[in-house]
Amino acid sequence: MARLLSTYCSVDMSSSCKLPCHQSYQGSNFFSSSCKLQTSKFPLEKLVLKGNRPERACMVSSTTLPISQEAKTQPGSGSHQASGGSSKRKRVMVIGGDGYCGWATALHLSNKNYEVAIVDSLVRRLFDHQLGLDSLTPISSIHNRIRRWKSETGKTIQLYIGDICDFEFLAETFESFKPDAVVHFGEQRSAPYSMIDRSRAVFTQNNNVIGTLNVLFAIKEFREDCHLVKLGTMGEYGTPNIDIEEGYITITHNGRTDTLPYPKQASSFYHLSKVHDSNNIAFTCKAWGMRATDLNQGVVYGVRTDETEMHEELCNRLDYDGVFGTALNRFCVQAAVGHPLTVYGKGGQTRGYLDIRDTIQCVELAIANPAQRGEFRVFNQFTEQFSVNELASLVTKAGEKLGLNVETKSVPNPRVEAEEHYYNAKHTKLIELGLKPHLLSDSLLDSLLNFAIQFKDRVDVKQIMPSVSWKKIGAKPKTVAA
Predict the structure, then answer these.
(1) Which of 324, 347, 349, 320 is nearest to 335 (CA)?
(2) Averaged pLDDT for residues 88-101
(3) CA 225 – CA 182 distance, rounded (Å)
(4) How far are the Cα atoms of 34, 56, 263, 300, 391 from residue 474, in angstroms, in the given order?
């Protein structure tokens, strides 16, 4: 059975890991008696870019068997009128549904009465094994998570384990689930990870760009009216010395005026992959009449949602390390363990931020108000703007109220970026659709700090400092210091 569910890497996990390796998830409670397996005749696409062809793997189509009686579903935001007037639950496929944003979104949509399926290769968990990292919070296996959700709510989330870069797996999944909307979180999402070495830069772009292309072709071939809700990033825009519009800008040049895609100035191989995605999606909307919403998301903070609070097995991951940790989450963990807050360079880097509760709200709004056929919408998905110095100051004040001695220190900036710059990004379209933001407040910071204090014994302080340099990226596989 261990052979059936495997992912791929190039070295023994007992040594310094360099690439995704062939490592079975034995001991992770992957298979349980409450899961149904459906083996595919198609192999998973290998994640490595060199070496021998891996063994055939499988597609796992899994749903939890009843633990408690199925709850009677009431018509809600997940219902829409089918032909003939009958109410039908909208089917939403969440690609990358085992990840930080994806898991919270999948639970929220299920709770809102959508029929939800998670599609995930589980490679994000493998990255932690490779780099010696771990979530601040203990994370249950995806099967235990889904089984617990069923137990708590009576609602079933379907599960398809496989790599969307394998089109045959993806096609089989589309034909099986028949989604009305696809929420696409299924990408390698870390800029530092993409800048470790050549192999990870190539993996990031291959995984993200080819995976998204496969999703586009799957929609065209199997569900042409399906609405794609794609997670982009504000990092596509860079830090221009003019206001950042939502996807498009109207310019006048030599007496002629046109509305064009906003110029992109990506700052890592990860951000570049998102730019490529946006261009591919825009083209297919124009050429094939697809409907798509690109959510250019800012930096997400927080961990709790109404759904993840229902039981400890539903808890979301929280990353604090120098590779996957985001600024505010990282600062709160540093404050909790008495580590100085690490401000990169001058600390004037300004970005858009939002609470994870607003991430799931934005996705639901996009699904409930789909794009038109042939329309490529771009929403800037954030609620507030902060500089790194401003975040450090807010965490320092909040920490002092809890009796923490919080210090801040400037460390050499591992990135190539402007450390002082103009930044004013528009973000009105989601507000117009009904977004009610959870703004960063003293009470929210207090909650996040207390959460970090609760799990501070799980912190590995060796992982806090940045260890990936933009200028020192090389062709040879590199090990991140453990």
Answers:
(1) 320
(2) 98
(3) 11
(4) 46, 32, 28, 29, 32
In tens, the pLDDT along 95-133 reads 999 999 999 999 999 999 999 999 999 999 999 999 999
> Is residue 377 within a helix (H) or strand (E), and if so which, with residue range?
strand 376-381
Cα separation, 374 vs 362, whole angstroms: 21
Q: What angle do CA 183, 441, 299 make, to 5 degrees?
A: 35
Note the pLDDT tens digit of each residue in 359-393: 999 999 999 999 999 999 999 999 999 999 999 99
* CA dist list (Å): 341 to 79, 350, 426: 46, 17, 29
Q: What is the DSSP letter of 367?
A: H
Active site residues: 233, 270, 274
98 CB-contact burial (10 Å; exposed 0-12 / middle 13-18 / buried 19+): buried
What are the pLDDT digits (tens) for 319-344?
999 999 999 999 999 999 999 999 99
Beta strand spans in 315-356 (E): 341-344, 350-355
197-221 per-position pLDDT tens digit: 999 999 999 999 999 999 999 999 9
End-to-end Cα, the chain, rounded Å = 31
Q: Which of 39-48, 78-87, 238-247, 378-387 has the lowest mean pLDDT?
A: 39-48
Task: Give the 3-state secondary structure of residue 165.
Answer: coil
> Tell me, what's the pLDDT at 79?
80
The predicted model scores a pTM of 0.87
Integer Cα distance of 281 and 212 in angstroms:
8
Give 342's strand partners: 409
**Which pair of structure tokens corresponds to residue 277?**
């995605």
Question: Which residues share a beta bridge with 246?
Answer: none
Beta carbons of 116 and 179 less than 8 angstroms apart: no
DSSP 8-state symbol, 40:
-
Residue written as token pair 């108000």: 369
For the purposes of burial, counting CB atoms within 10 Å of the CB of 118, is it exposed (0-12), middle (13-18) or buried (19 or more)? buried
* Whether 259 contacts 249, CB under 8 Å: yes
